[in-house]
Write a structure and sequence with these properties.
Layout (H helix, E strand, L loop, with lengths): L3 E12 L3 E12 L3 E5 L6 H9 L6 E6 L9 H6 E4 L11 H8 L18 H14 L4 E5 L7 H16 L3 E5 L3 H7 L2 E4 L1
Parallel strand pairs: 3-7, 3-8, 5-6, 6-7
Antiparallel strand pairs: 1-2, 1-4
The chain binds adenosine-5'-triphosphate.
The site of adenosine-5'-triphosphate has 12 residues, from helix 1.
GO molecular function: ATP binding; ATP hydrolysis activity
Protein name: ABC transporter
Subcellular location: Cell membrane
Length: about 190
């Protein structure tokens, strides 16, 4: 049986009347593997991740994630897929521990202060979101520029966490502008 859990065939996204962000794109990511999406600003990395999470339909082609056509409104799909996107947000009134209680994956080791999230710095909130995405039980992990707002120590931690997720069997797709992260975690790279 194939371990591929994220796949796309012939996908393309047309913006406006005639500009294809990407087209005829195939990808396949197996459990325990990581695909990195690289490319300049506006090249379509976030758009491709949105297609994998079912926030946006590709103009053409097919996508299958965790055995389904992606649909973020489907609770069963969301249970299998963990995400960190640009618009991911913390609950301002909840402490880190309360966030992890909600996510049901136990309490990860961390050094975030146990205060309501509104009192965390931008980088600490980003780390809380990352920890949440990584801690929540999942089969597929989609991360959009996870390195953003994270300090040097946090970026090293991020490499370890993504590799640990792979080791636990996650299929990871991440968009990144940070080559050391891509080098440390990616098994395959698509440069859009
Ligand atoms: N309906 C649309 N009409 C015109 N342009 C669009 C439409 N939808 C998206 N775009 C453009 O397509 C591009 C895709 O952006 P996207 O966020 O996917 O790129 P990205 O590679 O993630 O960029 P970054 O590295 O800056 O995060 C953007 O330039 C956006 O303005």
């Amino acid at each position: 049986m194939s371990d591929v859990i994220v796949s796309a065939e012939g996908i393309g996204v047309l913006v406006g009347d005639e500009r294809w962000l990407f087209r005829d794109l195939d990808l396949a990511v197996a459990r325990g593997r990581c695909l990195a999406l690289t490319g300049e600003n506006g090249s379509g990395k976030s758009t491709l991740l949105r297609c994998l999470y079912g926030v946006q339909d590709p103009t053409e082609g097919t996508v299958e994630v965790a055995g389904r056509t992606p649909d973020e409104t489907d609770a069963a799909f969301r249970r299998d897929v963990s995400v960190l996107f640009d618009d991911s947000a913390v609950f301002d009134e909840f402490t880190p521990g309360q966030h992890f209680d909600l996510l049901g994956g136990g309490q990860p080791a961390h050094d975030l202060p146990e205060v309501p999230a509104r009192g965390l710095s931008a980088g600490q909130r980003r780390r809380l979101l990352l920890l949440g995405a990584l801690t929540k039980p999942h089969k597929v992990l989609l991360l959009d520029e996870p390195e953003r707002a994270v300090d040097a120590a946090g970026r090293d931690w991020l490499k370890q966490m993504v590799n640990a997720a792979k080791g636990a069997g996650s299929a990871v797709v991440l968009a990144s502008h940070f080559p050391p992260l891509v080098d440390a975690v990616a098994d395959e790279v698509i440069d859009l």
